[in-house]
Design a protein that fits this description.
Chain B: InterPro entries: Cyt_c_oxase-like_su1_dom, Cyt_c_oxase-like_su1_sf, Cyt_C_Oxase_1, Cyt_c_Oxase_su1_BS. Chain B: One of its GO terms (molecular function) is heme binding. Chain B: This is Cytochrome c oxidase subunit 1. Chain B: It is found in: Cell membrane. Chain B: It comes from Fictibacillus marinisediminis. The structure holds two protein chains of two kinds. Helices cover 40% and strands 19% of the residues of chain A. A five-stranded mixed beta sheet of chain A has the order 3-2-1-5-8. A five-stranded mixed beta sheet of chain A has the order 4-10-9-6-7. In chain A, strands 11-12 form a two-stranded antiparallel ribbon. The radius of gyration of chain A is 27 Å and the shape is elongated. In chain B, 66% of the residues lie in helices and 2% in strands. The radius of gyration of chain B is 24 Å and the shape is globular. The chains are: A alpha+beta, B mainly alpha. Chains A and B meet through helix 2, helix 3, strand 7 and strand 9 of A and helix 10, helix 11, helix 12 and helix 13 of B.
Amino acid sequence: MKKNLYLFSSFCLLFISGCSSIDVLNPKGSQGNEQLSLIKLSIYIMMLVIFVVVVLFIWFVYKYRARPGYQPSTHQENRNKKLEITWTVLPFILLFILAVPMVKSVFGEAQKDRSEAMKIKVTASEFWWKFEYPAEGIVTSQELHLPKGKRVVLELHSKDVIHSIWVPQLGGKQDLIPGRTNRLALTPEKSGIFQGKCAEFCGTGHSYMRFTVKVDSKQDYEKWLSSMKKDQNSSQSLSADESEGQKLFEKNCLSCHATSGLTAADKKGPNLADFGNRDHIAGVLKNTPPNVKEWLKDPEKVKPGSHMPKREGLSEHDYTALSHYLQTLKK
Amino acid sequence: MSIPFFNTHIKLASDIIAANLSIIVMMIAALIFLTVAKKWKSLWMLISTTDHRKIGIFYIAFGFLFFLRAGLDAMLMRTQLAFPDFHFWVFHGEKYNQVMTTHGTLMIFFVAMPFLIGLMNIAVPLQIGTRDMAFPFFNSLSMWLFVIGGVLINMSFVLGGAPSAGWTSYVPLAVDKDIAGNGTAFYAMGLQVSGIGTIMTAINFIVTILKNRAPGMGFMKIPLFTWSALITSTLILLAFPALSAALIILIFDNQFGTQAYDGGNGSPVLWQHLFWAFGHPEVYIVILPAFGIFSEVIATFSSKRIFGYSSMVLSMLVIGFLSFMVWIHHMFTVGLGPLANVVFGITSMLIAVPTGIKIFNWLFTLRGGSIRFSTAMLFSLAFIPSFVIGGVTGVMQAVVPADYQYHDSYFVVAHLHYVMIAGTIFGAFSGFYYWWPKMFGYILDEKIGKWQAWTFIIGFHVTFFPMHISGLKGMPRRTFTYLPEDGLFELNFISTMGAYLMGISVLLFAWNLFFSYRKKEKSGVADPWNGRTLEWAVSSPSSHMRWPRAPLIRDLEAFWHEKERGDGTLIPSTKEESQIFVEKPTILPVLLGGGFFTLSFGLIFEVLWIAVIGAVGILLLMGWRSISFERNIKLYTSKQLENAIRKEEG
């Protein structure tokens, strides 16, 4: 029995350690780490429970199956105080082992001082994300930049319906509810690029309501901040094609989209400052000029439910120019 | 092409045309069958019946139709999710959300509930030795209201758009302008109408079980399935009014713009509280009767009395009680604060204790028995380890910070299907195979049955086990696609294959119904499994007129006791009854159902005069019932009933 238990627990360890490709089991932030330790503890306990049940199950089903020559004992046990007390008390003990670290973790996170942390205001709407850095006066959309090792408190707002912000590798999720302000703390410990998602079903475009989290070292983060504060793009001289695109942009797109990252200049649609450096268009397509064209031609087709309207009266050439211009929006 | 239809438009796209065609084909097939087989009269008799057994069959038959529809939805969803960024038919977008919502709503309210209430209708009066439910008219009306609710939800897809805010219908999304057609109105009216029926059923069962038990059946001699029916009915009575209230506010918000759930003037969280205050007990409403079925089946096929009967009853009571104190665990990420989260996390964990007691009691019922592997037993045995997996993931989610990761991910999808399918659906199938002879007087084929059981069990695990992992890999629930770079393709593809296997299994079950109907194995159907409880002491199918004198109950396993200690027949009590109450067949419940349908239709499509006709019709029919109900009742004395039965048997 002891040997079995040993084998069993090493199997569990194998199961968990062999899962580095599973986001939640491979966290890069301190909240994610703490949650993982609770997940691990509960998986161990629950594996034990499953093990006991399955062993008893197989044993009893095999041993007491009806077969020729088998005669069940005439004494049929219908009560057994000792056994019944055992399986009533033991679960309490297991649950106690699980509940204590849970309570500690919940209250520990709630009691942490909020004034120390950096604040970012997150606004979700159908079906995109806006991130405002109030201390810096800048705004981005679809990409959240965070410095490594710094505790960040996200202030969560929603424009329309309930959304939920989730970056599996940094930590658990929190809902964004219209009329309420929730908060979510994240402390990234490693730099890298992580997927963010909307977890609460929010309508047609829910599947594509994604964003990217870029965690940089302190210096790189500061560099990004200062470039965002500047009003110009890094690539100043535009080719003929690109400046034609710029004109088309100003005519067709500027009413909703700002190209400056300053909060003061922001408009109702996603902010496009630094668009050229983004990984994805609208959280869906890889950011390449042909894909930008595909997106502009029919946003609804690429991202069902998208509120971005189709522009009438643009030629193939116009779309090309626009897509080239958009790539120049780099900080 | 787009056809205007009252306040909405029906867009005739390929999927709508296909759905319409299939409805027309099925209608014509049904008409031809009824005419050729000369079944019109028996259909009329069936529709106007007040016999609990036939009403139970109706519940199950309609439940099965909705099961096929909701299962088809599941197949469409799994096909759309089989490959990353896949565009299957029309299901890349809003249509997916519609079938996803219909799948959830139908499966919970119009499949799980009628399957179990149907089986309760069939078995409970038999198990407690009474002749029918306490209120047979009520019973028929409840069933027709359930049918009307289900028809409303099913119609929505072809009448301008199905509900598409998920079966939980969270606001403000549910009242969003972007929701297609009248989806939310269909959802609210469908659930409201069937909910009224469900509450009436609950009252009916509570009264029947409390008042109409055969003499000698004290509380600790009630069979476990009947106990589960009693507790479930109590839960329904306490929980469904919360849903009704929530739905009334939803209807007002949706149709009249009252903004009670609005983020500005009202609170979207209010809906979640009301919905889950109903929704969590609902989980136990559909699991406790399944627990009851497993208890009956495992005891019967282990040829042994259930282990720890009193702790089984007690644990069901505790589960029922706790089920009202855990609803916040659906809302850990709403931001209600650490205290609320922790308290409800701990109460949720506590449910594991009574459930664990039940699991071990079932295991130790097997011990020392003589286990026969019938199809009913296969489903019950498969339930034990499968449900334990669903149970432990439930406890894992009660760990609040860990739930921040699981919540709204495929981990939850895996968990809820592990408890709903391995609990409720395994239980329903087990109950079908077990009680089929009592319903129809013939046995379902065991060979096809075993194929069906194994394909279903294997398909189930193949479908849902990988979802635990895709959830931990960051797949949010209710998404119609994922990107290639997410690394979710393999897991989703496996799930889809498993889903197809489950689809095949359901077809096997349908084939079994047809095959066994043709074969009609009728030998020894009164007590084919060597049963232990009272229902096996009457003929199969159970006749409406039975027990001229109520049987005397001497043991928990009344029939087994007589087989072992007596001569194998129940001793009739000597008490002479003077007022045995029989409700004559009546068409009124169907007409009332029609009234509710008209009212709902008018409200959904915002046509006042139709709604008024419906409302007035309902009131008139209710008035008619009030003044005519005595005419519809026949009273017997024990002696008269004895003579009537003798006459019927010739």
